[in-house]
Amino acid sequence: DTAVSQTPKYLVTQMGNDKSIKCEQNLGHDTMYWYKQDSKKFLKIMFSYNNKELIINETVPNRFSPKSPDKAHLNLHINSLELGDSAVYFCASSQGGRQETQYFGPGTRLLVL
Amino acid sequence: SQQGEEDPQALSIQEGENATMNCSYKTSINNLQWYRQNSGRGLVHLILIRSNEREKHSGRLRVTLDTSKKSSSLLITASRAADTASYFCATGRGATGRRALTFGSGTRLQVQP
Q1: pLDDT tens digits, residue range B17-34?
Q2: Does A23 lie at the interface with B, CB-CB under 8 angstroms?
Q3: What is the pLDDT of residue B97?
Q4: What digits encode the pLDDT tens for the residues A43-64?
């Protein structure tokens, strides 16, 4: 069984479009994250939700809007896509405590043309 | 420079040799974690060492932490071709409720068969 799953795995789209990425975890964790990995492999936190509540919102353009319908799901909607949004987006989850082990999804490779 | 910087950026060794990767960080931490990322995949947690620990082992992995020097090392003994991957250190720190990890840019390890 896949612990943290993301859809789609690949996303190719035109500049200016709006797209969504979905994430689901079946680990029973209460915290979920979105990370962005750029072409140099640097991984940066974007958002974090704890029990459907936004707890971390890094300096990310407001074109990016996370939504957590329940604690097992965290989706990422991106409006007006730009070339610089091309990256791999990873969802992750963790349980309890502070900065404990995180479990990552396989990533969504976004290419904006 | 970034919190959690790995050194070297790339490492190529022969199967059977040991691989050592280093990580430096800037601020106080609660714990430090090492993750592995195979090409085109998500990150997989390897080991977590807490700020009050100095050394930890897990199978062929040995992690050390020196909080006075703000540095950690990951040693992989008797390397195998399957160990080829990027390795990231991640630090857990920050105020109550902030649960995101801060990642470095990784060390790319190539193990030649």
Answers
A1: 999 999 999 888 888 999
A2: no
A3: 46
A4: 989 988 888 888 777 778 999 9
Q: Does A39 touch chain B (CB under 8 A)?
A: no
Q: Is A112 left (phi over 0), alpha (psi -120 to 50) or beta?
A: beta
Three-state SS at B83:
helix
**What tokens appear for A83 in the block?**
């070339």
- The set of residues, in sequence order, having a beta carbon less than 8 Å from that of A18 and lying 6+ positions away, is A77, A78, A79, A80, A81
Check CB contact under 8 Å for B88 and A43: yes
The region that residue B16 occupies, defined by phi over 0 for left and psi between -120 and 50 for alpha, beta otherwise, is left
Whether A41 contacts chain B with CB within 8 A: yes
Chain A residues closer than 8 Å to B106 by CB: 41
Q: DSSP letter at B60?
A: T
Q: How far apart are CA A92 and CA A96, in angstroms?
A: 14
**Smallest Cβ distance to B100: which of A56, A105, A107?**
A56
> Would you call B87 helix, strand, or coil by DSSP?
strand
Contacts of B45 (CB under 8 A, 6+ apart): A101, A102, A103, B33, B34, B35
